[in-house]
Amino acid sequence: MIISVVCLYLWLCQGSLLFFYFSRTNISHLSIKFTLTLNYRFISALVYRRELLGPGSVDKVGYTSSVFDDSEIFRYVIIALIVHINELERVGVISGDVAGKIRSALRDIWRGGYDPGKLSGYEDVHEYVEAELIRRLGSIGGWVGIGRSRNDHVTTAIRLRLRRALLDLGLLVLRLREALLGKAIETYDRVVIGSTHRQPAQITTLGHYMLYLDELSRDFLDGLMRVFNLVNRSPLGSGPLAGTMVGIDRSREAAELGFDGVVGNTIYATGSRYFAIEAASALVNYLVEVGRFINNLEMWLMPQLGYITADPSHLATSSIMPHKRNPATLEVFRARIGEAIGHLMAMYSILRPVESGYQLDLQELTRHLWAIIRIAVEGLSILTDFINGVRVNEEGVSESLSKYVVTAAEYAEVRSMRDGVPFRDVYNEVARELRKGVRVGLGVNEALAKPVQGSSNPQFIINEARVRINEVRELVARINSIVSRLDEVENKLLTG
């Protein structure tokens, strides 16, 4: 009895000291109850380091832990482990009975969900799942550790998660393209004034600008599917660096996970994040170009120009100036594109000094990848909605047309060809007339009707938009087919 009381006292004292520590480090909002729970879980959680290094300390394990970031890959950690157990059974390392119990427990863990707030003391999701298996099944849960490393399993889970994110992004960009092409057909002949050097340059149409962003998006989708093919290869079975003594058939595991093949070299498979950098850079490159188009939209919304109007849901007003109509959603998306660039630079900075092979630095890199994807998903959804609601303000365009001569170049070209006079001579003559204040130019419709493919010609715009709509439908069907196949693969593994 006395010994029990003493042990309880010491345990409480340890918890109190921990609470004092967190209070001194500006985390004083933590309750004593939470701190004591944290202490208990910490003691029981460290299945990897305990035997060699001892229990360690809460603050240091917490500093290096990735349990919160691992929310992104929890589903895929479970899936990878189930395939691993299937392979261990196939090669005769574990019996069918043991394999069945571990699979069942893994599926139960999946159905129970993942709450990182309750996982204090765990290094990562992999340690939590293994510890939970051992808690539920006893020592047989430890079979999950043979023939695997966190190194090959984490990159497998990242690839599984990333390939779904890329497909989701593909469908999102295709929805944006549908909005752009629909708006191109709606506004194929609705005039706006295009600018170069932020000066009025030539007349074109809003539909022409919609096709510009659509073609950019089409090119991005081509690159996205190339990145998808890079990502969709399996590192599973590579072990920590140089493989494992278990006779794992990596191609068989890859097929079971729905991958198109394997990452051949085990060092490359476990220690490289080239695939993540490729995905992140392709996405950021696209967002930067989208951001340039956002600048156009915001400029056209300025009352000084007033070429377009937007759905009021995208606007905000001032706390003091009741006349203001601020393009709030565009501004925030543009700012977050800047954040995405920062995340990409962080990925490069983390990766650059790290030698080949897995280092914990790579853990820190992945969170930036998920951040870039979230920025893209949220922002492109907002932009799609904005495009659906945008309208040309003919009054604003007409006012600008009355101020600026923006068809002078077209007039000079037509005169040069009609009269057989060298273009530069005509150019100089037109410039002198403009300097005198004489308005020299073509009519709007004549200036729009250029014979050049891809130009502002309204007929070219509407014809091209209609062709591209069919292209988009085919791509949607193609990606949905891949999504359905992967859904079938993953659901089969998670449900048995």
What's a concise summary of this model?
This protein has 496 residues and is mainly alpha-helical. The chain is built from 19 helices and four strands.
How would you describe what is shown here?
The chain is mostly helical. Helix content is 67%, strand content 3%. The strands form two sheets. Strands 1-2 form a two-stranded antiparallel ribbon. The protein has a two-stranded antiparallel sheet with strand order 3-4. α12 runs antiparallel to α13 (328-351) and α12 runs parallel beside α14 (361-389). The chain is elongated and about 90 Å long. Residues 1-44 have low confidence and may be disordered.
Task: From the structure above, extract its key features.
single chain, 496 residues, mainly alpha, Fumarase C, Chain B, domain 1, Fumarase C, Chain A, domain 2, 3 domains, two-stranded antiparallel sheet, two-stranded antiparallel ribbon, elongated, disordered N terminus
- Cα distance spanning the termini: 49 Å
Q: State the helix count.
A: 19
Report strand %. under 5%
CATH class of the largest domain: Mainly Alpha
Radius of gyration: 30 Å
Instruction: Examine the coordinates and then state which fold CATH places here, giving the name of the CATH topology of the largest domain.
Output: Fumarase C, Chain A, domain 2
The percentage helix is 55-70%
Q: State the CATH superfamily name of the largest domain.
A: Fumarase/aspartase (Central domain)
Widest sheet, order of strands: 1-2
